[in-house]
Design goal:
It is a single chain. This protein has one domain. About 5% of the residues lie in helices and about 55% in strands. It is built from 1 helix and 13 strands; from the N terminus they run ββαβββββββββββ. The strands form 2 sheets. A 9-stranded antiparallel beta sheet has the order 1-2-3-4-5-6-9-10-13, with no helix packed on it. Strands 7-8-11-12 form a 4-stranded antiparallel beta sheet, with no helix packed on it.
């Protein structure tokens, strides 16, 4: 049900970042941040009552009292704290024939605290990425790796008859993905390019469902094998 009394949520954000340029052919940054959120949204299920039926403009029908009303409400305050960093380094110390290599990495780590009913669907507590570039005047090759931590998707309504306890959520399992891309310039206007994602055997997203008391073996709900993706083409400028 739409809640006509829902207030907008607000946040005070604080960030502090240090950056370094041209440090022996490298660039890096490190930052910390905090977001104080007020009146955040949360999903609430309540047994129907005459007052709730009136609040949401529903008929005062005794049959409705056998149902629950699910709505969004302001559940209180929450706080997100975290760190983020990145670094890119050109390997200029290599022999001339190997010049053009770069390594890079970046990451974010966050912690969430506050109301247990706040709806942070899609909150990802950690993500990391890195790779190697090899760049020459006419071509480049890039190898990357990304990691995304377990991500909360949405709450599951408690159901004692079906064995679903309170505090049950769906999650996207943590995953690691490798990718390779390359490009070769045939002329100033035309270039061949290609890419392949999920070098490590294909993208395998796993859906989890669990409450704090759910044992590890009972958490997986769905497993998919999506394989790798290969793209080849020609670029042109006219």
């Amino acid at each position: 049900m739409t809640n006509p009394g829902l207030k907008p949520w607000t946040a005070d954000s604080y960030d502090f970042t240090l950056e370094s340029y041209h440090l022996k052919d490298g660039f890096g940054s490190f930052g910390v941040f905090q977001k104080n959120i007020k009146n955040f949204f949360g999903s609430v299920r309540s047994a129907a009552s005459p007052s709730l039926l009136e609040l949401y403009g529903l008929p005062n029908d005794p049959a409705y009292l056998n149902y629950e009303i699910a709505t969004t409400t302001n559940t209180g305050d929450a706080k997100i704290t975290g760190v983020e960093y990145s670094y890119r380094q050109s390997l200029t110390f290599l022999p001339r024939w190997a010049r053009g290599f770069q390594v890079f990495f970046n990451g974010t780590k966050m912690t969430l605290s506050g109301s247990t009913t706040a709806d942070f669907t899609g909150f990802n507590p950690s993500s990391y990425a890195g790779g190697i570039n090899f760049i020459r005047p006419r071509y480049f090759i890039k190898l990357t790796c990304t990691y995304q931590g377990e991500t909360q998707r949405g709450a599951v309504a408690a159901n004692v008859a079906n064995g679903i306890p309170a505090g049950t959520y769906n999650y996207q399992d943590a995953r690691r993905r490798w990718g390779l891309s390359a490009q070769y310039s045939l002329s100033k206007r035309f270039a061949l390019y290609g890419s392949m994602t999920d070098l490590n055997g294909g993208f395998n997203p796993t859906t989890l469902r669990y409450a704090p008391s759910t044992p590890a073996y009972a958490k997986p709900q769905r497993y998919q094998e999506l394989g790798s993706t290969i793209t080849l083409g020609v670029k042109g400028q006219f």
